[in-house]
Amino acid sequence: MNQKIQRYDYLDNIKWFLTIIVILHHTAGVAGGKPVGYNLPSVATSMAYQYDLLIVFQGLNQSYFMSLFFFISAYFITSSLERKGQRLFIKDKFIRLGSPVLISLVFINPFIGNGFISNLTDFFKSGNIDLGVTWFCWTLIVFSIVYSIFVSNKSQLEKRKNLAFPAVWSIIAFSFLLIPFNYIFLYLQNVGGYNLMGFRSLGNFPAYIAMFFLGIQAYKYQWLDKLSVKHAIVGICMWLLALITVFYLHAINSEYASSSYLLIRGFTAIGMSMFILYVFKTFFNNNNYWSKWLSRTAFAAYVFQDIALYSVAKIYQPLMTQTPLINFVVVGIPSVIIAFALSGVICKTPKLKEIF
């Protein structure tokens, strides 16, 4: 069996769009949000309130963007396994995804001040290792191998079926089912560490696993073809209501805020993903020279983004303003441009272009 999968332009467009959001997400950290390791110095106390705005921006991003990355990656995994077979499929994953992990450990992390030896030492002492942004690549390798082992127990991969999109009640019920797993994985994170075995922030993993699973199901049952405006409306309402719930809990007692996101993670990840998928499917299901180029270079831009961010931040630091939002814009725009420009060179470099 060798089924061909239609290459949807809008999924390619979502990938480069999310890559830009990821870079801006980390830019918010550089400008004073959640630490990234090379943040700009603190600003005057009178302007420090803008740090909260940057943290909110990061929280909104974190509520869905990596989950959607896992969904899109999983959507293409079945056809890839069918086409290559298990052995070649796993080999390809280690080359295409494992190589960026090694590049991050040996080159990128030391460049931004995260020493290779100290990182390995921490791993042998605590089981934690900082893979930078390539934690996503490492996690995707593991998810892909587990999936390939699962389907290898069948005589063949199941044929695609034309089944209806899940009912709204089942989507909501599925989101509720994730809540206890969110708390279990957060406990594992608190006990084992933030980068346990290279898996960053285990508290978020139930949503990642769920979206990876849903991506496989979406391909199998052709759900993306059935995605409608109704699902987009339900999705954005799920996302908004979940966020309102968190803000309400925070207003009642700020102690709730530290774990309240565990209650809503499934709703925000699934809800916003449905909304973005529909919007891009409806309005951005096309390509041109620049969208093709952005799609082609998005993966390399994701992997090498820290080089752009670190360089821009260090050059800008002596000139920085006392306004975090201005710093965010001044660092973010050139960082996005440089990350994609650098990736354009990488994607034309012998050997590297075979990976990226």
Looking at this protein, list some descriptive labels:
single chain; 72% helix; acyltransferase; transmembrane helix
> What is the element string, with H for helices and E for strands?
HHHHHHHHHHHHHH
pLDDT below 50 for ≥5 consecutive residues: which ranges? none
Work out the helix count.
14
Query: How many beta strands in the DSSP annotation?
Result: 0
* Structural class assignment: mainly alpha
What is the average per-residue confidence, as pLDDT, rounded to a whole number? 92
In whole angstroms, the N-to-C terminal distance is 28 Å
Write a concise synopsis of the structure shown.
With 356 residues, this protein is mainly α. The chain has helices at residues 9-30, 49-62, 65-75, 77-111, 116-126, 135-152, 168-192, 205-221, 229-252, 257-283, 289-303, 305-316, 324-346, 352-355.
